[in-house]
Amino acid sequence: MTGERLIRVRLADDQDVFTMRRMGREVAEAAGLAGPDQIRVATALSEIGRELLSQGIGASAAFLLDHDNLVVDIRFPADSGFLPADGAALAGRLVDMIDCVPDEGRISMLKRLPTGLRGASAEEVRAKVSRLAPVTAMEELKRQNQELAETLEEVMQLNTELQETNQGVLALYNQLSAELEETNRGVVALYAELDEKSNQLRRMSDTRNRFWNTVSHELRTPLNSIIGLVRLLVGPGGEPLGAEQLHQVQLIGASAETLLALVSELLDMAKAESGRLDPQPSRVDLIALSERLGMTLRPTSGMEQVTLSVQVAEHAAEMVVDEGMLTKILRNLLSNALKFTEEGEVRLEVATDGATDEVVFTVTDTGIGIPEEHLESVFEEFYQVPGPIQARAKGTGLGLPYARRLAEAMDGTLQLSATPSGGTTAVLRLPQRHAGPPVVSRLLVADDDEKFRATVRRMLSGFAARIDEAPDGLTALELMAADPPDVVLVDLLMPRMDGATLLLRMAEDERLRAVPAIVVTVVTSHQYPQTARAVVSKHDLRRDILLETVRHALEHEGE
């Protein structure tokens, strides 16, 4: 151990233990250690000394100053067989570091000196301890007892302070517990109130949805009848009407069609509110769709000074999306732009965003625009921006909320912004779905409902490479006999030959009995031949259900 040596003490009997203890305390004091640290060093030396003597081992202890540390280096015979026990363990807790190596006959203890306070130099420490008079064991014992009494007094004082602190902590804990309990009672009451309010809102929402559905359905029937009668009156084959009569009847028809459009909007919003929007993605030609919208909406502007232009980027010519939902959103955005633009241009631009893998539809106009504070309010139901043009324009304030609901149903976003030069910009962003290769080469739909066949065609777009249609069972049988499909969808209630008969004929034909047949009908309880692979209800038909059913039928082909 390196360092500047202060003094060496031998350890041969009990009197030497007292001497080494006293020397440790005096050296620690001279080196600048405080009273408690002096006692710690002295006690550590005393414990080590007694442990060595208890095993009959003599030793020597050298005190050294090593930079900012007080070091005690104890040496004893390496072959003495010393076994460190409780004394060494206690000494290790009293000093900053202890290194006990019995095989080398060495125990080193280190106590760090306080920083910032300069103690005596090595020469001063040596001079001081050399002047110490010898003391008897009794005198040293008295000194130890005095130190113990002082330490005990400090412990009692600390215990008193600790008790006072504990009392304060306990009082604070009781206060906090009472406040927390009171807060918990308030939170429980608030949760109960919120739960009741939530139930009330849920009941109100259900009531509103039922009201919209009921009113919409009840109004559609008489409105369709009125529109049909008006068309009969003004159409060919009807009795000639006078000019005023024709004008009045046409007003009736126009009003009925306006009411029907309003009822349809209400029904669509009710469907969106109840979460029953189910996108049916298929491959869509965006160029053709945009051109159709342009041709349909351009005459409705009513102003030659307003132009409607469409621009579709070449790399955005096609996407997989629900064509009906996309058409409704774009028609709504373009109609609004034309309605509130008196001169200038309305433009639809379609492009792709490679960074987000989205198709971006941007509708810009040079109309009156929307003030910044109303840009989000227009997505609230029945909200309309106040203004002279808005007062003249017809509308319910449901178009934009419904358009945003449709966009969200397709995992997209719809945002509005005001352009600095006037007008409004609407941006619709939809994820670019990448359709894989077709799963089915050829599929046949046998159903007398033309609208249902068109719906199924959209659902299976991209999933089936080729889709054939048959309006009755006999036609379906002829098509299958000429070229058997991979799978056939069969309606049970068809003219000329119903679905049950068609399935029986297929079972009798050696070429057709292996074709998987899926019954798609409104009468799921109807008895059908066991040759059908599955039965799907038209009421619950969704694209994911239909695709999974077809996959399952193909996987079990030939069983």
Automatic annotation (TrEMBL):
Catalyzed reactions per annotation: ATP + protein L-histidine = ADP + protein N-phospho-L-histidine
Domain Histidine kinase residue range list: 214-434
Annotated PROSITE patterns: HIS_KIN, RESPONSE_REGULATORY
EC number: 2.7.13.3
Coiled-coil ranges (or none): 138-168
Keyword Transcription assigned: no
A GO CC annotation given for this chain: plasma membrane
Domain called Response regulatory: residue spans: 442-558
CDD domains: HisKA, REC
Pfam family, one: HATPase_c
Sorted UniProt keywords: Coiled coil, Kinase, Phosphoprotein, Transferase, Two-component regulatory system
Record's keyword annotation contains Transferase: yes
Taxonomic superkingdom: Bacteria
Residue numbers bearing the 4-aspartylphosphate modification: 491
One GO MF term: phosphorelay sensor kinase activity
Enzyme class: transferase
UniProt-listed InterPro entries: CheY-like_superfamily, HATPase_C_sf, HATPase_dom, His_kinase_dom, HisK_dim/P_dom, HisK_dim/P_sf, Sig_transdc_His_kin-like_C, Sig_transdc_resp-reg_receiver
Protein name: histidine kinase
